[in-house]
Amino acid sequence: MSNHSPLPNESIGPSSPDADRESEGRRPGRSLKGPAQFLSFWVAIALPFVHLPLLAQGLGDPSVTLTFVTLLGINAVALYAGHGYNRE
After folding, report:
1. For the whole prediction, is pTM greater than 0.90?
2. What pLDDT is stored for residue 83 in this prediction?
3. Domain limits of the chain?
């Protein structure tokens, strides 16, 4: 397939299957990047639904407040880790 864009993109070189295999061999963690981003993306989507009952209950109890703040931190980390999911 050819690129039908009117503007050339010199920053992306042609990819060969041999180069892909070599980079996979040197980076074993790269195979975990996709599933980790998938999981982080969906955790970041679902976690706010756990926040709602905690907020409805109220944050007067210290254990509820600690749980809310902990989940908020986990949500922030999941947002950061999953922000690139499904982008090419």
Report:
1. no
2. 85
3. 33-88
